Prior knowledge:
Blueprint: E1 6-9, H1 11-22, E2 28-37, E3 56-65, H2 68-81, E4 85-86, H3 89-96, E5 102-110, H4 120-127, E6 129-136, E7 139-146, H5 163-170, E8 176-188, E9 191-200
Parallel strand pairs: 4-5, 7-9
Antiparallel strand pairs: 1-9, 2-3, 5-8, 6-7, 8-9
Helix pairs in contact: 1-2
Amino acid sequence: xxxxxxxxxxxxxxxxxxxxxxxxxxxxxxxxxxxxxxxxxxxxxxxxxxxxxxxxxxxxxxxxxxxxxxxxxxxxxxxxxxxxxxxxxxxxxxxxxxxxxxxxxxxxxxxxxxxxxxxxxxxxxxxxxxxxxxxxxxxxxxxxxxxxxxxxxxxxxxxxxxxxxxxxxxxxxxxxxxxxxxxxxxxxxxxxxxxxxxxxx
Length: 201
């Protein structure tokens, strides 16, 4: 089983897509368990009027919140069924040529040009997002990561020594392969934007 380190999780977008594509909203799941209690002396023996019991079956229900990963799995299944989820970026780009709104679940290499600057974290904190860039043949792809959706940050602010800042400084030139689930659309003939839903290392 793959284990991912998530650097971006857009939970409001996940809930929105879940309602649109799965068609019903679940905030929790119920796990029921039945147990049989062997009979013994009951309270009636002490004058309370309750019958002496034999074996008794009881059912307990535990409520567990449906995790974002369960929701994402169901969203991806729904998008697969509608043939609107692509695992190859070139196929997804070709689909956008026909004016379709498409989703990708793929590994793409991005650089972080903001982090070429000495005061990169100050810039990122002022703007509230990290901008990533990629080049696929003649196509230029951009992706914006809002700090509010980056779970490894404290208080939606990026320090110079945090894990994400260190990562982005290291990939300014050579890039890094990110596992991305999000939507892809064209903003000009040779320029596309990914709206990320989940990004993992």
